[in-house]
Design goal:
two-stranded antiparallel sheet, elongated, alpha+beta
Length: about 60
């Protein structure tokens, strides 16, 4: 097995790792409610996917006395 003779400098290491950062997730708008959602997934705010309601969401009732 080959072993390194010299230590890599910080600059050389950082140049190699320049593209290893996390990328932002792409968001699309829901055609029903215009909320931002991940593509190819059910909208978490209205429950629609490709024009059909797939998930029925529970509505929280506010208790006012």
């Amino acid at each position: 097995m080959a072993n390194p003779k010299r230590r890599h400098s910080n600059t050389r290491t950082r140049l190699r790792r320049a593209h290893d950062f996390l990328k932002l997730k792409s968001l699309s708008k829901c055609p029903q409610c215009r909320a931002s959602r991940l593509p190819h997934r059910v909208c978490p705010s209205c429950g629609y996917y490709r024009g059909k309601q797939v998930v029925t969401l529970k509505v929280k009732e506010s208790s006012q006395k």
